[in-house]
Known about the structure:
mainly beta, disordered N terminus
Amino acid sequence: MSRLRAAARATLLAAGLWASAAGVSLAGAAPSAGDYRLVDRIPAGDGSFDYISLDAARGRLFIGRDDRVSAIDLAPRRSVDRLLAGDTVHASLVLPGGRVLSTLGGADEAVLFDGATGAVLARAATGDHPDAAAYDPATGSAWVADYLGGDMTVLDARTGRATDRIAQVGPHPESPVADGHGRLFVNTGSGEVHAVLVIDTRSRKVTARYPLTGCRSASGLTYVSRNDSLVSVCRNGLAIALSARDGRELGRVTIGGDADGALYDAARGLVLIPSGEAGVLEVLRPGGPQGLARVAAVPTRVGSATAALDPGTGRVYLPSADFDPPAREGDDPVPRPGTFQVLVLAPPDAAP
């Protein structure tokens, strides 16, 4: 859903917080795995924003906007403000072969397009308000979370054709993630009851539900291949680690509120969570005696609640802007013209 309304509360507290040149390590001044540093700020077109994704092989970022998909080429630097028109674009899922699947929450459809040109290859109807999406390499399928409908729409990732819909998996499905071996995990829930669903992508059946005790508004979710676990993000300031095999809780830590994404950097063994309310990138280490440990809170910018990871370089890309308060209570805040930038953070082991 819209990341702007969540950012509004934080904006009124600390509008326009900028990233510092280095991370704030919880372990003290000595260099640590959490010492990420700001290495770039990439300006792009004005407007609201949601998920950001990266085609690392082609060096292109995709950003879901209120009325379009924007793209940024990293080298040479070039911005394409309107690569694809769309009504309330949330995710832009990078697929094999340079194709991209975007979810249009305002049109209840998913659009497959050429990531280089924006040429539309296929359109498919989804459930009510498609939001996040994931690719399952085991079946060559794309899975779209229909946030308001409570369904999961399944598409052929090559053709963009909808092949199935799993109805009523649970309220507000968010952040599907695949393990690459036929399991898909999805956050779901409302009120005080939240869980991670396990779906067999071959049979297309829900096989388990793992409770998220104490979680409110489950959002980001990532799969940790190193120990076959999950880290689920709750907007009430919790990150919870679960066993992907049986749902057993492995650990939990307090994080900044209104986080709306989670990334796993397999090369460094770290989970990265962007907190929009606190204006930090939470750096967590899964595993170990605690199950999950908070390594650092790296300053970013208030309202930056989603991120993309380059698995090769470890760089993290976060969309950001300054916001003006909404004109009416309950409305989304308005991004201030000329302030949109993608913040680029590099890990401590990255080349200068």
